[in-house]
Design brief:
This protein has two domains: about 130 residues, Jelly Rolls (Sandwich), CATH 2.60.120.10; about 100 residues, Orthogonal Bundle (Arc Repressor Mutant, subunit A). Helix content is about 45%, strand content about 20%. Helix 4 packs across helix 5, helix 6 crosses helix 9 and helix 7 crosses helix 8. The longest helix is centred in the middle third of the chain and has 27 residues. The protein is globular, with a radius of gyration of 18 Å.
Length: about 240
């Protein structure tokens, strides 16, 4: 897969039209390919001197572990996302990163990242846009945990994943493949696994969406949007801001 075809390039293309030079820089950033197995952390809270990664394939979760052993998943990362970018810039990881599936990712040492920002400022601005968008999603998740009921929370989450996956060519208007278990959904949405199961059944019985056998299928997309009061503005997918 070339840099132009990569999910990361497709994602950044929502912000800036990438030049030949910028694509060649992206190609270099993708040169250190590594694979990681599911269930084994790539980085952990408190770790220093680590690299960032660009996720090429597979799914990852970022989470915080509490002293009582419970876990809060902050977000899921999909192909095209940076892993550990904030931790690299802050020099100390403030969360854990765990592959949900077998993943392939490109390792990006902080030195290469800084050189990229210096040599191609527009590409640096695009990475900053992606990081800002990720922060906006975390804010939206906080609103969901605090103010949406369980059905609204689940509907909003499934719609957000749809928008993110469409951006990198991994979803259609009908739905998408999703490897997340009900236990992972529970840790992300602040629900129990039993409650997750009940909510998914309710959404299915309402004729809105099904999530079975690793596949999310929309039955009434507009109805689901209305239930969640879903507005894509925070995802900023309206086309390149920079020519």
């Amino acid at each position: 897969m070339t840099a132009l075809q990569s999910p990361f390039a497709r994602k950044l293309g929502a912000f800036v039209t990438l030049s030949t030079l910028e694509l060649s820089v992206l190609e270099r950033l993708h040169s250190r390919r590594r694979t990681f197995v599911a269930g084994r952390d790539i980085s952990h809270e408190g770790q220093t001197d680590q690299a960032a990664y660009i996720l090429a394939s597979g799914w990852v979760c970022s989470y915080k572990l509490l002293t009582n052993g419970s876990r809060q998943i902050v977000d899921f990362q999909i192909p095209g996302d940076f892993l550990g970018l904030r931790s690299v810039l802050l020099r100390t990881a403030d969360h854990n990163i765990e592959p949900v599936t077998l993943i392939e990712a490109s390792e990006v040492p902080v030195k290469d990242l800084m050189e990229t920002f210096d040599a191609t400022p527009r590409l640096g601005a695009a990475v900053l846009w992606a990081a800002s968008r990720d922060e906006a999603m975390v804010v939206e998740h906080l609103v969901g945990l605090g103010r949406r009921d369980a059905r609204e929370r689940m509907a909003h989450f499934l719609l957000e994943l749809s928008a993110r996956l469409k951006l990198v060519g991994l979803a259609t208007a009908d739905g998408y493949a999703c490897p997340l278990s009900q236990y992972l959904l529970a840790d992300a949405l602040g629900l129990s696994a039993v409650h997750v199961n009940r909510v998914l059944r309710e959404l299915r019985e309402m004729g809105l969406v099904t999530f079975q056998n690793g596949q999310v299928t929309f039955q009434d997309f507009d109805g689901l949007v209305a239930l969640a009061d879903f507005d894509t503005a925070y995802l900023d997918h309206e086309g390149p801001l920079m020519p």
